[in-house]
């Protein structure tokens, strides 16, 4: 359980984290979502006692990080996979970490096995690929068999196999009853792994809710219907006050009903009127568009003006990269 | 104890301490021998008229060299942690930053002390083998201090290097500041007209050198100077005091700032 | 010309050269003020005295020049550089040229600022630049800084490691040369051929030497000393270019 209350951190005149309060519960994967520069890493460093908050505090199972006796046994973290000495072997890196918290040397072999680095354990960590570094970072996080785990953008730069592996690992850790707090700037990524979300923008809390709730409220849904009696259905729906438009397609014209509407409502109205339906489908707007609408004002680094591709391109390029994953 | 163990593993699992250790011993012994051999041949030819004499301390003239390598090694022990961001991992594993700093100081100080003893006695031993026609036996307490004292001076030197490294967090900055101060700054300050002589005893590396009777400002026989405000042990106590103050400031700063 | 501009942009867009230039100026001038301010009648101030602290500036410039290459290796930007300009000889020459030029300018600024400080602190002292030797004592500092920078770029490129290069340069210039020249009998013979010693001989020869600096008879005149120092730096640069062309970036 991680509880942050009124966390604030300033760097000179920039407010990196602004009066941020949230709770991360055990047994679930909690996503820490926000655009780049939203203060996610700063918050994680404050959780780990690396940076000192200017105001507020964060507690881990009721204690501050400095009060933890052997912190690696309580909290494991992967903030940056490149935080290793390039000339030190992976095994030596884990060995000093284990020694610092009185963990048996046997754990080093165990976590190396767990992340699949046993065969390269004695090579210098500086020569590791990003994927291997990431695995080493996860091995370090798991070293003390902690109940609480923090991951900062763990899938960045990984190949599909590595992404899949990390997703499964986080789900498994949460299923074992651990608290898993993982940051990302990709809502699509979080939609795959996280049950809960803490959403931030410009250092401020935007939402704390379940992922399903966030996706529901954030993304616009619409209902598409095709029918041989399209004009009749259109009149009825308009009379009942629904917003809609006609969308031509290869299989004939379709109606798209927008606003707060469910497929159940449209289906029932059609049944009342004895209208035959050839298609009744719910369409969700892109998660990325929704996320950008919510955090739009709080994107730290924004390109100027609106490019030819519209607001999606102008908002944030990393969100665009994510676009392909979920659609 | 686990913090100490972690720091020990950290130090010895990279290459630079091994290189530095080797360089320390090789430079100290190498220079000591060059100096000893040239001095001995001069004294043999020209007799007692020359202003040089050959004794135990003649074998120790390379010590200052080793001290410079120790400064760099100790500074690197912490600046590389900042450079590669492993300091964040360290403070994450051990949130008590004071104990991290104390452990580092102990490990690096101990290594420096061992290297100092090895280098000093190796110089003396090799000197005895190479130069047999002069008396290089260690007899007096002063002679013991001149040789065995190297370990103490190296340990104090290491603490200074570590403290400056922690304060600057920057390899090139720390190394430049330390080396330029120790090799040039103290000499030039000592050469300031009128006040230089009075300041000189209070320049830390000068005091450390006085304890061993070696260093750029220590001519052969200079340790007999009577107008100094301290004796040899006072000099090393002052040197140690400077190191302790610097180290305390470093610990305070490391605790206060973000990792 | 493009290459020179590229190297100039690279050098000035990071912070360390600015820090080094500031440190070179501040430490040298501060120390000159200290020396000239404390000297009394028993310690006359000469043109050379005002340049007594120039070694401080030289050391910082050596570090700056070495960093100009070692940081490229440390951050891997050397690969980007060699990718943009595959002609490594041209890259290294351009880099050396820019760094040396900057070092020369800093040297002149440091030297004339120190001389100016001397004039302000001791208006009664004879600090007029009357002879060619007087001019050499002051303006020569810039030449020594420039040549020293070439040597440091060479060492930095060969070592490719910041701490290693900086330690090697400083320990060599400040300690090894001093210890070697202090060796009984042979020291005097070696001394003129130690590069940094030759450089300081160039600056100090002819004129009243400041206390502590013993100027013994040399096998060369002042310009010969500079030529020797330059020759060593040029040799270092040639070796560096050969090595850099042969090894992987």
How is this structure best described in words?
The complex is a heterotrimer of chains A (327), B (259) and C (249). With 327 residues, chain A is α/β, with parallel strands linked by helices. Chain A has helices at residues 40-47, 90-100, 106-115, 130-142, 160-175, 187-193, 211-218, 230-239, 263-272, 287-295, 311-315, 317-326; strands at residues 2-11, 14-24, 29-33, 55-60, 75-78, 148-152, 179-184, 196-201, 204-210, 221-226, 243-247, 254-258, 279-284. In chain A, the strands form three sheets. Chain A has a six-stranded mixed β-sheet, sandwiched between helices. A four-stranded antiparallel β-sheet of chain A has the order 11-12-10-13, with helices on one face. Chain A is elongated, with a radius of gyration of 24 Å. The two termini of chain A are 33 Å apart. Chain B has one domain. In chain B, α1 crosses α5 (97-130) and α6 crosses α7. Chain B is built from ten helices and no strands. The longest helix of chain B has 34 residues, at 97-130. The model of chain C has no long low-confidence stretch (mean pLDDT 89). Chains in contact: A-B, B-C.
């Amino acid at each position: 359980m991680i509880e942050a209350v009124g966390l604030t951190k300033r760097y000179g005149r920039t407010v990196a984290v602004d009066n941020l309060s949230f709770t991360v519960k055990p047994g679930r994967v909690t996503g820490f979502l926000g655009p780049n520069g939203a203060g996610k890493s700063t918050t994680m460093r404050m959780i780990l006692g690396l940076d000192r908050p200017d105001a507020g505090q964060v507690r881990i199972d009721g204690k501050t990080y400095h009060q933890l006796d052997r912190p690696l046994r309580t909290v494991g973290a992967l903030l940056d996979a490149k935080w290793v000495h390039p000339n030190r072997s992976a095994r030596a890196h884990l060995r000093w970490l284990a020694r610092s918290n009185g963990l048996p040397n046997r754990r080093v072999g165990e976590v190396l096995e767990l992340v699949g680095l046993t065969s390269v354990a004695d090579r210098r960590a500086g020569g590791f690929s990003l994927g291997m570094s990431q695995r080493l970072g996860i091995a370090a996080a798991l070293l003390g068999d902690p109940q609480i785990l923090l991951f900062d953008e763990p899938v960045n730069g990984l190949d599909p196999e590595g992404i899949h592996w990390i997703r499964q690992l986080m789900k498994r850790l949460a299923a074992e009853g651990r608290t898993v707090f993982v940051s990302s700037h990709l809502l699509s990524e979080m939609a795959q792994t996280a049950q809960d979300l803490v959403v931030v923008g410009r250092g401020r809390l935007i939402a704390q809710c379940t992922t399903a709730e966030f996706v529901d409220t954030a993304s616009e849904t619409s209902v598409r219907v095709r029918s041989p009696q399209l004009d009749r259905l259109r009149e009825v729906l308009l009379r009942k006050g629904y917003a809609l438009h006609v969308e031509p397609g290869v299989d004939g014209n379709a109606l798209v009903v927008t606003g707060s509407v469910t497929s159940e409502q449209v289906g029932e109205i059609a049944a009342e009127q004895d209208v035959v339906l050839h298609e009744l489908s719910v369409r969700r707007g892109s998660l990325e568009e929704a996320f950008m609408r919510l955090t739009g004002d709080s994107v730290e680094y924004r390109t100027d003006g609106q490019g030819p591709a519209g607001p999606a391109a102008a908002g944030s390029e990393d969100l665009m990269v994510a676009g392909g994953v979920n659609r | 104890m686990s913090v100490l163990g972690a720091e020990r593993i950290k130090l010895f699992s990279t290459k630079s301490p091994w290189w530095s250790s080797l360089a320390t011993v090789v430079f100290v012994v190498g220079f000591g021998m060059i100096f000893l051999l040239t001095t001995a041949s001069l004294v043999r030819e020209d007799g007692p008229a020359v202003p040089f004499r050959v004794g135990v301390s003649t074998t120790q003239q390379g010590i200052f060299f080793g001290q410079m390598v120790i400064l760099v090694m100790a500074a690197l022990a912490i600046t590389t942690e900042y450079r590669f961001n492993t300091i964040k991992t360290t403070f994450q594993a051990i949130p008590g930053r004071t104990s991290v700093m104390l452990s580092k100081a102990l490990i690096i100080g101990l290594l420096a002390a061992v290297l100092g003893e090895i280098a000093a006695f190796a110089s003396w031993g090799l000197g005895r083998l190479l130069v047999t026609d002069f008396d290089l036996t260690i007899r007096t307490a002063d002679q013991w201090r001149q040789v065995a004292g190297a370990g103490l001076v190296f340990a104090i030197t290491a603490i200074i290097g570590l403290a400056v490294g922690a304060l600057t967090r920057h390899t090139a900055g720390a190394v430049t500041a330390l080396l330029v101060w120790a090799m040039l700054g103290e000499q030039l300050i000592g050469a300031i007209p009128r006040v230089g002589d009075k300041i000189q005893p209070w320049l830390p590396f000068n005091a450390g050198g006085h304890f061993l009777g070696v260093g750029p400002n220590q001519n052969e026989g200079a340790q007999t100077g009577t107008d100094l405000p301290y004796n040899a042990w006072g000099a090393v106590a002052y040197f140690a005091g400077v190191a302790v103050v610097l180290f305390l400031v470093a610990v305070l700063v490391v605790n206060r700032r973000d990792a | 010309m493009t290459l020179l501009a590229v190297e100039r942009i690279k050098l000035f867009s990071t912070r360390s050269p600015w820090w080094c230039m500031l440190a070179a100026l501040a430490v040298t001038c501060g120390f000159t003020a200290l020396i000239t301010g404390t000297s009394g009648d028993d310690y006359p101030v000469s043109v050379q005295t005002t340049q007594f602290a120039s070694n401080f500036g030289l050391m910082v410039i050596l570090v700056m020049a070495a960093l100009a290459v070692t940081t490229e290796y440390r951050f891997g930007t050397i690969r980007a550089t060699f990718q943009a300009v595959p002609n490594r000889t041209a890259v290294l020459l351009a880099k050396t040229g820019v760094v040396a030029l900057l070092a020369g300018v800093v040297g002149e600024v440091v030297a004339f600022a120190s001389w100016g400080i001397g004039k302000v602190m001791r208006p009664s002292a004879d600090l007029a630049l009357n002879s060619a030797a007087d001019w050499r004592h002051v303006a020569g500092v810039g030449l020594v800084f420039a040549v020293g920078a070439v040597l440091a770029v060479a060492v930095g490129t060969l070592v490719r490691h910041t701490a290693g290069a900086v330690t090697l340069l400083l320990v060599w210039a400040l300690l090894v040369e001093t210890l070697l020249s202090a060796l009984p009998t042979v020291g005097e013979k070696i001394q003129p051929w130690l590069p940094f010693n030759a450089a300081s001989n160039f600056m100090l020869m002819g004129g009243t030497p400041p206390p502590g600096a013993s100027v013994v008879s040399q096998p060369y005149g002042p310009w010969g000393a500079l030529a020797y120092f330059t020759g060593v730096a040029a040799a270092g640069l040639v070796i560096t270019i050969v090595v850099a062309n042969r090894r992987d970036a």
